[in-house]
Amino acid sequence: MRMRVLLLISGGLNLVLATGWYFARPPAAVRRVTINRPPRTTNVVRLLRTNVFVQASTFRWKDIESNDYLTYIQNLRSIGCPETTIRDIIVADVNQLYAHRRATEISSGSHQWWRSDPDMDVLEEASDKIQALDRERRDLLTRLLGPNWDVSGNLVSIPEMSITFDGPELGTLPLETKLAVRDIITKGQERADAYKRSQASAGAAQDPAELAKMRQQTRDELAKVLNPAQLEEYLLRYSGNANQLRDSLRGFDATPDEFRAVFKATDSIDLQIQALQGLTDSASVKKKAELEQQRDDAIKKSLSSERFTFYQLNSDPTFQQARDTAEQIGAAPETVLPLYQINQETDKERQRIMADGSLTPEEQSQALADVYRQQLDSIRKLLGDSAFQKFQAAGATPGK
């Protein structure tokens, strides 16, 4: 509402003079353009009772506004509102409408907070929908205001905001709440930056416990303006712990339910572990080890037995190498575990040969070469000739 009042100040002097004229002339016939608006974040659009007598001393904007854009434009003209101000009002209103639709109807990469890497199909589909919505927005404004309405063409947005308020929870937040969240995050970052500068100026090390307190303070402040579902959505998408979890689960292909379960089980533990980072006293080292064990136990309880086994394998460097190799050559995902097992058995045999003191250097070299050939034969059988040729062409190494 504030924006409208500011925009209409330029036409304020015309209001009293235009009131009598407004009611002396019959409303012109116009083609109606009715839009189903989402819930408003401010009292911008309200139902209009048309042809209502308005006393200049009790003028109210609600008597001018309408859910029908053409009626609304006609009413603004009827009270002598300048065309440039009408354009600014309608463009701002339509932009706000389509910003809401963009926030609630389009799935962006950050919606899939359980994925370590974004789904390119989702990103492409989102891009197509964004372009379609923008075309629809511009067509509507052209019908309402004529071809020369466009001054900037930009959707209403919160400036300098790295967080996208879209999706089923964040996309429906009132503007006031979005601004409150932005202020909380900004102030939290400013606190942390100021502390780091202060420690650097004093030549002192940063205290992980102090930084952890600041992060907790920011969360507590967010909890005052967001309900539990909104706060969970925010943390799943944008918290540091969620980002770390996505990195650690790369290749695990967690489902939304799995990611949510693991995050909820480990989030508070991670905050405690972070508070102990850099501390080397025996008590802190012991406490950190206990927390890391608690974290492993929490993850185990959050996943099925089979998936937990895969989670453990996913952190094994040899398994990671097998996974990367399969991805590099476009092999089927089900080949990763057998490829890992081939490499693992090869490594064991290689280590046995290297530790066998009864072998001469020549015998040892020959044995290692035989093991390597056997490994290649096993990989060829697993992948098939076509994938194996890609494997060799890519220069992939089958083992350590």
Annotate the secondary structure layout.
Elements: H1 2-8, H2 13-24, H3 69-78, H4 83-105, H5 120-145, H6 167-170, H7 175-201, H8 208-225, H9 228-238, H10 240-248, H11 256-275, H12 282-302, H13 305-314, H14 317-329, H15 336-355, H16 361-383, H17 385-393
Describe the structure.
The chain is mostly helical and 400 residues long. It has three domains: 2-145, no CATH class; 167-314; 317-393. It is built from 17 helices and no strands. The protein has helices at 2-8, 13-24, 69-78, 83-105, 120-145, 167-170, 175-201, 208-225, 228-238, 240-248, 256-275, 282-302, 305-314, 317-329, 336-355, 361-383, 385-393. Helix 8 (208-225) crosses helix 11 (256-275), helix 10 (240-248) packs across helix 11 (256-275) and helix 14 (317-329) crosses helix 15. The N and C termini lie far apart (66 Å). The relative contact order is 0.06.
Could you provide a short overview of the structure?
The chain has helices at residues 2-8, 13-24, 69-78, 83-105, 120-145, 167-170, 175-201, 208-225, 228-238, 240-248, 256-275, 282-302, 305-314, 317-329, 336-355, 361-383, 385-393. It is an all-alpha fold and 400 residues long. The chain starts with a helix and ends in a 7-residue tail after the last helix.
